[in-house]
Amino acid sequence: MAAVWRIESARIVAALTRFTGDFGLAEDAAQEAVAEALVSWPRTAPADPAGWLMATARRRAIDAIRRRAALRDRYATLAADAPAVVDEVDPDRIDDDVLALMFVSCHPVLSPESRVALTLRVVAGLSSAEIARAFLVPVPTVQARITRGKKTIAAAGVPFELPSAAERRERLGGVLSVLYVIFTEGATATAGDRLVRPEVAYEAIRLARTLAALQPDEPEVHGLLALCELTAARFPARTAPDGTPVLLEDQDRRRWDVPAIHRGLAALAKAAPRGLGPYGLQAAIAAVHASAPSAGETDWDWIVVLYEALGRVAPSPVVELNRAVAVAMASGPGAALRIVDELVASDRLPGSHLVPTVRGELLSRLGRAGEARAELELAARLCGNEQERSVLLRKAAALD
């Protein structure tokens, strides 16, 4: 049941939204169909689960419209052809419907939090409880974000339609940023007792694959997909059996997911011909790591060049911090420390554990043990992820 819903939910909600013209009603009707399936399927499993869900959700939508006196005309139109529910789903339009659903869920009128929650709920098919677990927030908070998002879309009169090519291009960055946020939270959880939440990351990858299939001419879509695939390829080696993190230089590269690396490199090849954007450049960095036989054979000089290019097209303090790490590996900790100290002086990452983490590592390599220990202990206090915090504290203790 869960697998069918996860695969088909976006198509069902998208088709219902096109039929009813009401995003919230479509999502509610689809959820009611799932609830009914949980009761009826254990007794009699349907031969066509996706068709059953679509037909049931369509009936629920019609029932809801019947109860809305102001929408009687729309109900009459839907009811007139209700027997042909499954056949009415136009296979030539379904992909456009799913793409439209992505753009509606990530509409700029929504807050970033609502965009993420709506995308995971109506496009990925996750429940409110699953989203809450993924982002370590209470279920009512997720439900409130989803409710506010649907109300905002309705109040703004956002039409359920595929935006024009020009408008899609303008809004594509917002869609990609939502998928990137979802993936990065899965790849390195900001809080909690697990370093990696693979189920969240793989949902982002699935959505990125869908978007790449629907928008094959957009290089940054392939760039994001490449970044996700290449990063996720390292998941099997990123943690020990007890869940503790394994640093990149210590990972058993034989455990990396080779098919995922091949998929990532193929996606990167599709992104490259028209020039790499921010996601493509990050994917290119991940590709250098994926192609290196060992940590010692990594081409750190090339990674520095790629980070410099990334800093030009998408400047940010995090990019500068990552460039410092690459500089440390290519040229030594002294040059890298100067970059980090500039970030500290400008206070561009206040409250982040990342800056003291990197600074502590660099100071340790320079033999300044006391200063390094203080930085690592500060990083541990600022870090919300328990697994990362334990590693920081162990490193600090080793400097005594």
What can you tell me about this protein's structure?
- The chain is mostly helical and 400 residues long.
- Helix content is 72%, strand content 0%.
- It contains 21 helices and no strands.
- It has helices spanning 2-20, 23-40, 49-67, 72-80, 85-88, 94-105, 112-123, 128-135, 139-155, 165-187, 198-214, 219-232, 235-238, 258-271, 278-291, 300-313, 317-331, 333-346, 354-365, 369-382, 386-398.
- α10 packs parallel to α12, α12 (219-232) runs parallel beside α15 and α16 (300-313) packs antiparallel against α17.
- The longest helix is centred in the middle third of the chain and has 23 residues, at 165-187.
- The radius of gyration is 24 Å and the shape is elongated.
- It starts with a helix and ends with a helix.
- Mean pLDDT is 85; it is low at 82-94.
From the spread of the alpha carbons, the general shape counts as elongated
Number of helices: 21
- The secondary structure category is mainly alpha
**Overall pLDDT:** 85
Report the span from N to C terminus: 54 Å
Query: What pattern of helices and strands is seen along the backbone?
Result: HHHHHHHHHHHHHHHHHHHHH
Report the uncertain regions.
Answer: 82-94
Strand content: under 5%
Provide the descriptors you would attach to this structure in a database record:
400 residues; 72% helix
Reconstruct the topology from this structure.
Blueprint (H helix, E strand, L loop, with lengths): L1 H19 L2 H18 L8 H19 L4 H9 L4 H4 L5 H12 L6 H12 L4 H8 L3 H17 L9 H23 L10 H17 L4 H14 L2 H4 L19 H14 L6 H14 L8 H14 L3 H15 L1 H14 L7 H12 L3 H14 L3 H13 L2
Helix pairs in contact: 1-2, 1-3, 1-6, 2-3, 3-4, 6-7, 7-9, 7-10, 8-9, 10-11, 10-12, 11-12, 12-14, 12-15, 14-15, 15-16, 16-17, 17-18, 17-19, 18-19, 19-20, 20-21
